[in-house]
Amino acid sequence: MLRAVVALIGMWLANPAPAADCAPFRKLLTGHAHRLFGLDAPIPMFIAQITQESGCRPGVTAWDNGRGLAQFMDGTTEQVARLYPDLGTPAPYSPAWAIPAMLRYNGWLHARVRGDTECDRWAAVLKSYNAGLGYVQRAQRRSHTPGVWFNATENINAGQGDKNFEYSRRYPRLILFKHQPLYAAWGATLCAGVAP
């Protein structure tokens, strides 16, 4: 029985959600993303991030207590609530709270990492979202090419355990190169032509 559950979890992680499962969140995500990042906001990347996080299931709680569409941990929920009190009472299971909170937090991270291109910078943002900003900033300080993410700074382990490092190193790749293409019709994509 346990093997069957592990196999199902593995299948979900490999292919968490078809694009149709995320369609109900398109309008909400697009509206908030355009307000925060402009009309060229990388909508496909943001919905790909939600796909990776929760499979577009707002009521899900992960084994590590990540909650809702954006899989906010309790500490991150509290941080976002302090940074953006205008979002109201934290409600990670509510798409109406989780989507703008995720976008705002991504923007906060974007202002704190480097990238020679928007592809590099958003990859650093995604790693920060998954692992924590401190790991990315330390890796960028140690890197000979701090603004280059793929095949460069992404390979610097700035203090994570091996298993966590490997997952968080793959996290931007899964979003940008596996899931994002599923949503290319939703808007501007990032990292076109990048072969990591």
Q: How many individual β-strands? A: 0
Mean pLDDT: 91
User: What's the order of the H and E elements?
Assistant: HHHHHHHHH
Proportion in helices: 55-70%
Class based on secondary structure composition and strand pairing: mainly alpha
> How large is the share of residues in beta strands?
under 5%
Major sheet details: none
Q: Unreliable stretches, pLDDT < 50, 5 or more residues?
A: 1-16
Rough outline: globular
What would you report as the Rg, rounded to the nearest angstrom?
A: 16 Å
Instruction: Please report the number of helical segments.
Output: 9
Termini distance?
38 Å
How would you describe what is shown here?
This protein is mainly alpha-helical. It is 56% helix and 0% strand. It has 9 helices and no strands. It has helices at 2-14, 19-22, 26-37, 43-54, 74-83, 95-110, 118-131, 133-142, 162-179. The longest helix is centred in the last third of the chain and has 18 residues, at 162-179. It is globular, with a radius of gyration of 16 Å. It starts with a helix and ends in a 17-residue tail after the last helix.
